[in-house]
Every structure is written in structure tokens, then in C-alpha cells.
Amino acid sequence: SQQGEEDPQALSIQEGENATMNCSYKTSINNLQWYRQNSGRGLVHLILIRSNEREKHSGRLRVTLDTSKKSSSLLITASRAADTASYFCATLKADRGSTLGRLYFGRGTQLTVWP
Amino acid sequence: EAQVTQNPRYLITVTGKKLTVTCSQNMNHEYMSWYRQDPGLGLRQIYYSMNVEVTDKGDVPEGYKVSRKEKRNFPLILESPSPNQTSLYFCASSYQGGSRETQYFGPGTRLLVL
């Protein structure tokens, strides 16, 4: 079953606006990652936030993590047409009895940024 | 250049004809994994490997086999493909240091089984 679920499924905005995508997950995690996928291509890692962190920035990206609500958000500021892609959250949860986790992906948010 | 390569990129085959999709990485990563991506279902893990000769099932292993004889290669084998295995397949790799972190993805293999 899916561990992470993104919301909304699709988001359409104008260039210059901010885009916010949310991710909810079910079990405790070691970290949460966001990936980007251009149409039909491989996923590219964007940012990783650990379970003991609350907020992280990377360029125009801002990620927050609320472990009490089991949710995360990805904010892209001043969006550009080139940001058009699908965005996935992935959670690394610890398997019982092991420090090695498996990465679980959500279904993704399709972001379209209009020029 | 650090990368994960997959071959072929596109494949059309018929039901029951065995096929292999190759995956190779040049980053000396211990961990490698195969995912399939289907509309509305996101990425689902098929098999993964923590190191040479160590493989384990993911969430959807039925109908697939893997092997890890060398660190750099992790082929995906479909012994008798069926139409429900039509999908977009991704190989990924990462370092293994207590927990797997950033995964590096290949470009994908689009498979159509008739």
C-alpha cells in the first residue's frame, strides 16, 4: 500500500506564483524526500528532510515536516514554466529490527506552470 | 559522469517471450532497486538489492526475477511477460550507510506486452 499521498493530485498556476504541495504518510519515518519527474523521465532528487528537522530550504524550495501530523509540504516560490513536472514525496521508514529502511513513493502531484 | 543506465529504453514484446531489462550504475552504490510506474498508482517497488548476491522482494514482485552477481549491474527478468506487466520501469541506486538516502534513477524503460 502507498505510504505517502500527495495533495493535490494536480495544480495549475501562473509563472511567478508560489506552488504548495502536501504529503501525508502513515507510519513513523527516518526521513522524507521530495523528487521531481519530468514527463516520462527518471525521478530526480530535490530535497531530504530528516524526522528531527522541521524545515529545510534549498534555493526556491522550502520543505516542512510535521511528524505529529505525519505530513510534509513542499513550497516552490516564484515558479517558472520549467518547474512544470510531477512531484513525489518518498518516505524512508525503518523496518522492524533493522536500521535499513525502504523508500515508499506517493502517487505524485502534477504541477503545471503557465507562462 | 555518475549515472544509472537502463537498456532498452523502449520495448514491445508478446506474451510469454522472456525478456531482460538491464540496469547498470557507475557510482559504486551498494543498494539497487527496480520500480514500476503506472498511471494513478505512482511508483511501486518490485525488487531491491542491498549488495551483491543479496536481493529481496518489494511490493509487487510477482512475475519478475532479479539477480545481483556484480555490484554495478541489477538486471530485471520477465520470464513469461503478460499484458499486465505493460508499464514504465525504473532502476535506482544509492549508497547504503545505515539507511538508504538519496536514490539516483535511470531514464526508464517503457515496456508494452501484447
Short description:
The complex is a heterodimer of chains A (115) and B (114). Chain A is mainly β. Helix content of chain A is 0%, strand content 59%.
Shape of chain A: globular
Query: What series of H and E elements makes up the topology of chain A?
Result: EEEEEEEEEEE
- What shape does the CA trace of chain B take? globular
Quantity of strands of chain B, as a count: 11
- Regarding quaternary structure, what we see is heterodimer
Say how many strands of chain A there are.
11
Helix share, percent of chain B: under 10%
The main sheet of chain B comes to:
7 strands, mixed
Quick one: which chains have the greatest interface? A-B, 26 and 28 residues
Walk me through what this model shows.
The complex is a heterodimer of chains A (115) and B (114). Chain A has 115 residues and is mainly β. Chain A is built from no helices and 11 strands. Chain A has strands spanning 4-7, 10-14, 19-25, 31-37, 43-50, 55-58, 61-66, 71-76, 85-94, 101-105, 109-114. In chain A, the strands form 2 sheets. In chain A, strands 2, 4, 5, 9, 10 and 11 form a 6-stranded mixed sheet that branches. A 5-stranded antiparallel sheet of chain A has the order 1-3-8-7-6, with no helix packed on it. Chain A is globular and about 45 Å long. The model of chain A has no long low-confidence stretch (mean pLDDT 89). Chain B is an all-beta fold. Chain B contains no helices and 11 strands. In chain B, the strands form 2 sheets. In chain B, strands 2, 4, 5, 6, 9, 10 and 11 form a 7-stranded mixed sheet that branches. In chain B, strands 1-3-8-7 form a 4-stranded antiparallel sheet, with no helix packed on it. In chain B, strand 5 and strand 6 form a beta hairpin. Chains A and B meet through strand 4, strand 5, strand 9 and strand 10 of A and strand 5, strand 9 and strand 10 of B.
